[in-house]
Specification:
With about 120 residues, the chain is mainly alpha-helical. About 60% of the residues lie in helices and about 5% in strands.
């Protein structure tokens, strides 16, 4: 298991290249990124940055990791990209604000990415 604390495309790509060089394959990718969020307050008290930053940060890091791993896995014709989202994103709990909000676009993006990579795998 490797732990990476990077959020740039180049750093993530360098890491996945190192994993493949060392292990010979990238069988599983899991992004367990932590993002600072504001919770335990009413949504009406959040600033725009408190609302937007967790969504942006979570989507960026998941996208960059999934693209880097997906390219390798498509070449290998195998691999799994694991991802978790927060339950409050689908149910809605009070005062979860920045914690729950990133889960909503993540759920939609995972399905979209999966369908695109399945289609690309057939093209390759």
């Amino acid at each position: 298991m490797y732990v990476v604390v990077f959020s740039t495309s180049a750093a993530i790509q360098q890491h996945i290249d190192q994993v493949v060089q060392t292990a010979g394959t990238a069988g599983i990718s899991f992004n367990a990124v932590g993002t600072p969020v504001v919770q335990n307050v009413p949504l009406t008290t959040l600033s725009l940055n408190d609302f937007v930053n967790p969504i942006t940060a979570m989507m960026q890091t998941r996208f960059l990791t999934a693209v880097a791993a997906g390219k390798v896995m498509m070449q290998q014709k195998s691999g799994v990209i694991l991802s978790l989202t927060a339950t409050p994103g689908g149910i809605g709990y009070p005062y979860t604000c920045g914690f729950a909000l990133p889960a909503v676009p993540l759920k939609a993006s995972h399905a979209t990415w999966l369908q695109n990579w399945v289609c690309m795998a057939y093209v390759w």
